[in-house]
Design a protein that fits this description.
alpha+beta, single chain, 35% helix, globular, eight-stranded antiparallel β-sheet
């Protein structure tokens, strides 16, 4: 990646926006072709905002983060202003009649007058430590970089049609809030995501590509001095290089699928912008491709994904982003995955993608460039779906036989390139599928990963896309989420993951608390890890080897342990969605759960979880009052706890087997 810092600098005479890969606003024919059938929806959305009153984010909304930890009071009106501005801009490009130009000018003007574009939750990076702008220091966060990029792009596109005072206000605001603090060495501590003094072992997360891609847009659109522009590009290239050096070579996103769009996805945006502006392309790169394909591999089905760390289990990625990332890095798997997500089971065909309309206008514009390619492929798939007999000549269809082609089989063929087992040896994630519709994800890792939960060795299990053993994920972000009280939150604790409490002891936070000897057999669909290192000395644990082995219709879970001393009982926990029936309870007429078993029923799937007779099972409910969780899991999750005798042997084995009940 070092060529980013050197090769492209000679072409930086493209300062001030002349590199921009989109037509002038007046080139109506090109814009009409780009928008196509998307134009009507965008215009209709913008029409709803014609009487929009731009919201001034009050001081009390900023202060609410300090007072109660609530960040939404500030973020809701802020995000709404950004969305309306982007919607007006897209609608005007789609229609071209000037109806939305006043709205664009008003939105730009309102944005330029804000004292800060930084989110209240991130403003404590100021020297004052306050969550309200103090006027003494400008920092750059996800909000300010993204808002600056939108302001810069929109101002550039419509500059000829805007009052010069509005243009000057925007340029001044972007320089004050983004350009100057990015170049200012005294701001590097506050702008920690640049990783200016990064050392091995320190964390770099999605903020790096997310901010750098947007800051790069600001400079390319707004900076006319080629020397300053060259310095900004050098800084950003060096910063993104450090992110790529930090990312594991296997390409997994340790922050989970919900952060893929902001980590790998924003890296892709950065590289695409750099390619446009300098002619330097790094998209044909093995690591970049592996980072992209992670989103395909971590998709379980029916909108459910592997949700380790701060990720929701219910998530559908930005489909056009997945497609264009795959197209540009040469991944047919990613392109097919995007098409797969566009299947409509009700109509049994593939629908056209919708243009994303949010607060990221760059991604909306980029989607337009690839929309024609996606529609062409969708048309081909739909022709295939209407041909319900004979073999397909398309590479997407099955080559096994002359069986009739159905829409379902066409859709299934789009996932044919996904391997049965994906092993990420550096991140220590393993994803396994069998022919019976079972999906297992397991992890090793350490307890100081980005957006960490204390969850070394945990796993999730789905059958036919239905959750059986789950990871709760995370609730709505508050001040507590990213504070010293983070691990007071139940969903961050190992006790509420599919893990043991060893000698009554839970896992604790810290990079040194990690798995060891992590192994995965992709042919045998098995995984094992030594977990003793994830617990403190209080566990008196010399060894605790957790292993998973998946057959066609069962999952074996094994805990083999050696303790230095037996202090209290062990507890092995499993988190489930659905009903739980303990031994002796009735699951139907004449059907009683036998000793040594627990039955779990969820969404039409029923499984037995067999356990050693020496362990006593019990169930505890966790009511879900946070909508971010309840929208996924419903009103409650249940934890099954298997407790050993207080004087159980210090060396032994706990074995569990999950089997589907027909």
């Amino acid at each position: 990646m070092s060529e980013l810092e050197e090769t492209g600098l000679a072409s930086l005479s493209l300062a001030g926006g002349s590199w921009f890969p989109y037509p002038e606003y007046e080139d109506r024919q090109i814009w009409d072709e780009l928008f196509g059938s998307s134009a009507e929806r965008v215009i209709q959305m913008a029409e709803k905002y014609l009487d929009y009153e731009w919201v001034v984010v009050p001081a009390s909304a900023y202060l609410e983060f300090e007072r109660s930890g609530d960040r939404q009071s500030m973020e809701r009106p802020y995000d709404m202003n950004r969305k309306v501005l982007n919607t007006f801009a897209l609608a005007e490009l789609a229609e071209g009649q000037g109806r939305f130009l006043d709205g664009i000018a008003d939105g730009l003007w309102a944005g330029a007058q804000m004292p800060s574009w930084v989110l209240s939750a991130h403003l404590p990076r100021q020297a004052s430590g306050r969550s309200i702008p103090d006027g003494k220091q400008e920092v750059i966060d996800l909000g300010s970089a993204g808002f600056g990029a939108s302001m810069s792009v929109i101002c550039h596109i419509f500059e000829k049609d805007l009052d010069p005072a509005v243009v000057r206000a925007v340029k001044s605001a972007v320089r004050e809030k983004v350009l100057n603090p990015y170049l200012d060495p005294s701001c590097r501590d506050a702008n920690w995501w640049m990783a200016d003094d990064w050392k091995p072992g320190q964390l770099i997360n999605n903020w790096n590509p997310w901010c750098n891609s947007n800051v790069l847009l600001c400079f390319l659109m707004m900076e006319d001095d080629p020397e300053i522009l060259a310095e900004a590009v050098r800084l950003s290239a060096a910063s993104v290089d450090r992110f790529l050096n930090y990312v594991k070579g296997d390409g997994a996103c340790e922050e989970g699928p919900a952060y893929w769009e902001h980590a790998a996805g924003k890296l892709y945006d950065y590289l695409r912008i750099m390619d446009y502006a300098t002619g330097v392309s790094c998209l044909d790169n093995g690591l970049v491709r592996r980072m992209g394909e992670y989103i395909s591999r971590s998709y379980i089905g029916d909108g459910m994904v592997v949700n380790f760390a701060d990720a929701s289990a219910s998530f559908t990625p930005d489909i056009p982003l997945v497609y264009r990332y795959g197209y540009d890095c040469g991944s047919r798997e990613m392109m097919n995955f995007a098409l797969y997500l566009l299947y409509n089971p009700v109509s049994a065909d593939f629908r056209y993608p919708q243009l994303p309309i949010g607060n990221d206008i760059w991604r909306s514009l980029e989607t337009l460039r690839y929309m024609g390619k996606m529609r062409h492929e969708i048309d081909s798939l739909n022709v295939l779906c209407t041909n319900l007999s004979g073999r397909s000549g398309l590479s997407l269809a099955s080559e096994k036989s002359d069986m009739a082609v159905t829409p379902a089989s066409v859709r299934a063929s789009l996932r044919a390139e996904v391997p049965q087992c994906t092993w990420y040896p550096e991140t220590e994630f393993a994803y396994m599928r069998n022919r019976s519709g079972w999906f297992l994800a397991a992890k090793g890792g350490n307890n100081s990963e980005s957006h960490n939960h204390n969850d070394v060795g945990t796993f999730i299990l789905y059958i036919d896309d239905v959750p059986v053993l789950v990871d709760a994920g995370v609730g709505t972000y508050t001040k507590k989420t990213f504070s010293h009280e983070r691990y007071d939150i139940w969903s961050m604790q190992s006790d509420w993951h599919n893990l043991p409490m060893i000698n009554g002891t839970s896992q604790i936070f810290g990079r040194e608390f990690k798995a060891a000897d992590v192994k995965c057999s992709t042919s045998k669909l098995s995984f094992s890890a030594e977990l003793s290192g994830a617990y403190s000395d209080a566990a008196s644990c010399r060894s605790w080897i957790r292993s998973y082995s998946m057959g066609e219709n069962e999952l074996k879970i094994s805990d083999r342990f050696v303790l230095s001393d037996r202090i209290v009982a062990d507890t092995v926990n499993f988190l489930v969605q659905g009903r739980v029936y303990l031994p002796g309870e009735s699951i139907g007429p004449g059907s009683e759960v036998p000793a040594g078993q627990v039955v779990i029923v969820n969404g039409g799937i029923a499984v037995s979880l067999s356990c050693p007779l020496s362990l006593q099972p019990s169930v505890k409910e966790m009511p879900l009052t946070d909508p971010r969780m309840s929208n996924v899991w419903g009103p409650v999750l249940r934890r099954i706890s298997f407790v050993s005798a207080a004087d159980a042997p210090a060396k032994g084995h706990y074995g569990f087997v999950v089997r589907q009940i027909s």
